[in-house]
Design goal:
single chain; mainly alpha
Length: about 70
Amino acid sequence: MAESFGRANLVKLRAKYKAPDRIGAPVEELRRFVPTYQKVDGARRIGPHLMAERSQSPSFRVFAATVRQLAEIL
C-alpha cells in the first residue's frame, strides 16, 4: 500500500499500523496521510501491491486463501 501513495510511507513506521485488523476506520486513517484518498481509486492503486503471504492482516490472509480454494474448485 505505501508504494501506491508516496506520503503514506510514514504509515510503515507507526506501530499501530502493524496490526491492520485493529484499525477502526481504515479509510479515515488513509485520509490522514492522503487527504484526496477515494475508495475506488485507492483500491485500484493498492491492489497490485497486495501480497497475502506478506500481509500482517490475518483476515486478509484467510480471505485470500478462501478465494484461492474457490478458484481451484471452479
